[in-house]
Design a protein that fits this description.
By secondary structure, the chain is of the alpha/beta class. 56% of the residues lie in helices and 13% in strands. It has helices at residues 16-29, 44-53, 60-84, 95-105, 110-121, 136-146, 158-174, 188-200, and strands at 5-10, 34-38, 88-92, 128-133, 179-183. The chain has a 5-stranded parallel beta sheet with strand order 2-3-1-4-5, sandwiched between helices. The two termini are 14 Å apart. 37% of the residues are buried. The structure holds thymidine-5'-diphosphate. Residues 12, 17, 39-40, 67, 92-93, 97-98, 101-102, 153 line the site of thymidine-5'-diphosphate.
């Protein structure tokens, strides 16, 4: 049987990475074989592209193309083979991040991203996407508390993250079957309990 594909999304500072680690552990305890991975990245080439994307200034379309180049590699080498062999894939960000950041944040036309997605992903959709949502000011506080240094995206201003957040909310509203919107202001324990319930329905 094909494995399940779960993606986690949200603005920087939403606590997505903590929940990613928890979810992977939870699924392993339930006896699933789980591949924990992330975008951009997840392959040797993808991680090199990630390093460039997080540090090097570039044209917004170049940024989108490199995100999708890394994604193509990731799908071919990691995601598709894992799902085909029955393993579950839990991925920290996927296509929705391109719509939210390159589309919402940077203002690249939604239609252009949709075309890249169609070409790259070829119909593969996550079985479940968790979008961790919280006010931008709070996310910024959490980011500052977590680390003194910020990458190229984390250095963006409040209005950028407001647009990214709005795009994520739009994606959640337009895909109610696939996407669960999680109130990331809740305590870790409450969020874990909620995730447990959501996973049980898969
Ligand atoms: P992130 O998961 O925030 O990494 P970390 O938790 O280690 O900081 O991902 C890195 C950044 O990449 C994040 O700011 C969002 C950005 N990104 C895009 O802009 N578009 C994409 O398609 C993806 C996958 C990520």
């Amino acid at each position: 049987m094909r494995g399940r594909f779960i993606t986690l999304e949200g603005i920087d500072g939403a606590g997505k990475s903590t929940q990613h680690a928890w979810l992977v552990e939870h699924l392993r305890q339930k006896g699933h074989a789980v591949v924990a991975t992330r975008e951009p990245g997840g392959t040797p080439l993808g991680e090199r592209l990630r390093a460039l994307l997080l540090s090097e200034p570039m044209h917004l379309e170049t940024e989108a193309l490199l995100m999708f180049a890394a994604r193509r590699e990731h799908l071919a080498l990691i995601i598709e083979p894992a799902l085909a062999s029955g393993r579950w894939v839990v991925c920290d960000r996927f296509v929705d991040a391109s719509f939210a950041y390159q589309g919402g944040g940077r203002g690249l036309a939604w239609e252009k991203i949709a075309r890249l997605a169609e070409w790259t992903v070829d119909g593969l959709s996550p079985d479940l996407t968790l979008i961790f949502d919280l006010p931008v000011a709070l996310a910024q506080q959490r980011l500052s508390a977590a680390s003194p240094t910020r990458d190229r995206f984390e250095q963006e201003q409040t209005d950028f993250f407001e647009r990214v957040r709005a795009a994520y909310l739009r994606i959640a509203a337009e895909n109610p079957q696939r996407v669960k919107l999680i109130d990331a202001e809740k305590s870790l324990a409450n969020i874990n309990k909620l995730l447990e319930e959501i996973i049980a329905t898969l």
